């Protein structure tokens, strides 16, 4: 479930979740049993020959979406999903230019590399033309700051009752990009994570995505919601992260937690958009009987164990405890997140300067030695990213907080 064991049998609380991939728990008994039963029945055919598992799964998956999002392509990874989403957007609009946000990460392929705006994932090789990157609206490090959809705000930030006043400024930057760098009315798509994951759990100022969506539509583009990290109830209030922004995407990409660690991903879109893909699409392993069986079991566990509600309640409790730590440990510059998708921005005390990598690494190792596994994100790898299996409880949170408190206290005294 939420625990991992090393070769000596020592137990660790896993707050990494295989990088937001183990959604319902390591070796969850229901998911494991379903996979074993399927392995003993049928591993693989190809989708040329129909099998019932793929239909059972897709019907259950699309029931989680509203509106016209009823067509599903099953693939094997987030990279494949976002690559296919780009093809669909270009085919439907007849346009080639695509916009993503700075410091975004959408996968790794020769095409997707152009969508990424993170140097860590950009090789010095040509990428497709027509890729543009808009300013990331970051309430902590962005030039206009802002307030976000979280119980935790940047110290001394605005506290707007509705849309954040800074959202218009960031959207204006997006408008400038569209007006100056994209052929008029020729945008194919705007890709955005509902909360930036690899960039260190960056939430946008309230209202940004909705206003960006409206602007993109005026320029002829589709909105692609990358739900690879934020989907399946992780943010607590909604099953999908985009629902927190009050928008309906044209295309949604899914991966990671969709299969609890089993290779599975998906693209969900409308019949109208799918019809524009007028050539054959074939994916050897996409939607194989094992993957479809696991995917269906994961959805059932999320429902039966009320994991979305657990994300909401336990995530709120986790954020509250981290906010208390922030008051006494100046190395914590920002606490942010929603549900069980949380970021802890570590800084040089008294500044917004990212904590140096050497000290960040020492903190990570000390926390690990005390029995808790953490990961880092952000441009400078100084943001502790907490994205555990969605089954963790308040006792686990208390344990993690006590460990973090010990380590930060040691750091403060020995810095």
UniProtKB/TrEMBL annotation:
Gene3D superfamilies: Aspartate Aminotransferase, domain 1, Type I PLP-dependent aspartate aminotransferase-like (Major domain). Keywords: Aminotransferase, Mitochondrion, Pyridoxal phosphate, Transferase, Transit peptide. Its EC number is 2.6.1.18, 2.6.1.40, 2.6.1.44. GO terms for biological process: glyoxylate catabolic process; L-alanine catabolic process, by transamination. Pfam families: Aminotran_3 (PF00202). It comes from the Eukaryota. It is found in: Mitochondrion. It is an enzyme of class 2 (transferase). Its cofactor is pyridoxal 5'-phosphate. It catalyses: 2-oxohexanoate + N(omega),N(omega)-dimethyl-L-arginine = L-2-aminohexanoate + 5-(3,3-dimethylguanidino)-2-oxopentanoate; 3-oxopropanoate + L-alanine = beta-alanine + pyruvate; L-ornithine + pyruvate = 5-amino-2-oxopentanoate + L-alanine; 2-oxopentanoate + N(omega),N(omega)-dimethyl-L-arginine = 5-(3,3-dimethylguanidino)-2-oxopentanoate + L-2-aminopentanoate. Coiled coil: none annotated. GO terms for cellular component: mitochondrion. One of its GO terms (molecular function) is beta-alanine:pyruvate transaminase activity. Belongs to the class-III pyridoxal-phosphate-dependent aminotransferase family. Multifunctional aminotransferase with a broad substrate specificity. Catalyzes the conversion of glyoxylate to glycine using alanine as the amino donor. Catalyzes metabolism of not L- but the D-isomer of D-beta-aminoisobutyric acid to generate 2-methyl-3-oxopropanoate and alanine. Catalyzes the transfer of the amino group from beta-alanine to pyruvate to yield L-alanine and 3-oxopropanoate. Can metabolize NG-monomethyl-L-arginine (NMMA), asymmetric NG,NG-dimethyl-L-arginine (ADMA) and symmetric NG,N'G-dimethyl-L-arginine (SDMA). Homotetramer. This is Alanine--glyoxylate aminotransferase 2, mitochondrial. It comes from Euphydryas editha.
């Amino acid at each position: 479930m939420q625990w991992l064991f090393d070769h000596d049998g020592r137990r660790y609380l896993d707050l990494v979740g295989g990088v937001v991939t183990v959604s319902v728990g390591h070796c969850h008994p229901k998911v494991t049993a379903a996979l074993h039963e399927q392995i003993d029945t049928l591993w693989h055919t190809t989708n040329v020959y129909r099998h019932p598992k793929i239909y059972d799964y897709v019907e259950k998956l699309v029931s989680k979406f509203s509106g016209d999002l009823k067509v599903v392509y099953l693939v094997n990874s987030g990279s494949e999903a976002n690559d296919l989403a780009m093809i669909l957007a270009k085919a439907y609009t007849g346009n080639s230019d695509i916009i993503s946000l700075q410091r975004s990460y959408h996968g790794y392929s020769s095409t997707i590399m152009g969508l990424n705006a993170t140097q860590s994932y950009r090789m010095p090789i040509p990428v497709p033309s027509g890729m543009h990157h808009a300013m990331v609206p970051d309430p902590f490090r962005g030039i206009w700051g802002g307030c976000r959809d979280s119980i935790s705000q940047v110290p001394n930030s605005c506290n707007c009752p509705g849309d954040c006043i800074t959202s218009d400024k960031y959207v204006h930057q997006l408008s400038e990009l569209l007006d100056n760098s994209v052929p008029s009315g020729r945008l194919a798509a705007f890709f955005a994570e509902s909360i930036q994951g690899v960039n260190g759990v960056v939430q946008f100022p309230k209202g940004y995505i909705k206003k960006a969506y409206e602007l993109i539509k005026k320029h002829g583009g589709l909105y692609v919601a990358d739900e690879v990290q934020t989907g399946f109830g992780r943010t607590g209030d909604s099953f999908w992260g985009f629902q927190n922004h009050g928008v309906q995407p044209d295309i949604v990409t899914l991966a990671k937690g969709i299969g609890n660690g089993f290779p599975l991903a998906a693209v969900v879109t409308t019949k109208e958009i799918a019809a524009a893909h007028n050539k054959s699409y074939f994916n050897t392993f996409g939607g194989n009987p094992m993957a479809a069986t696991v995917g269906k079991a994961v959805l059932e566990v999320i429902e039966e164990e009320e994991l979305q509600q657990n994300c909401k309640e336990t995530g709120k409790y986790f954020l509250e405890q981290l906010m208390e730590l922030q008051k006494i440990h100046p190395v914590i510059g920002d606490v942010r997140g929603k549900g069980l998708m949380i970021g802890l921005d570590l800084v040089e005390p008294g500044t917004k300067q990212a904590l140096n990598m050497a000290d960040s690494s020492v903190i990570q190792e000390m926390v690990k030695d005390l029995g808790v596994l953490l990961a880092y994100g952000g441009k400078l790898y100084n943001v502790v990213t907490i994205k555990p299996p969605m089954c963790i409880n308040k006792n686990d949170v208390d344990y993690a907080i006590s460990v973090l408190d010990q380590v930060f206290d040691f750091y403060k005294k020995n810095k």
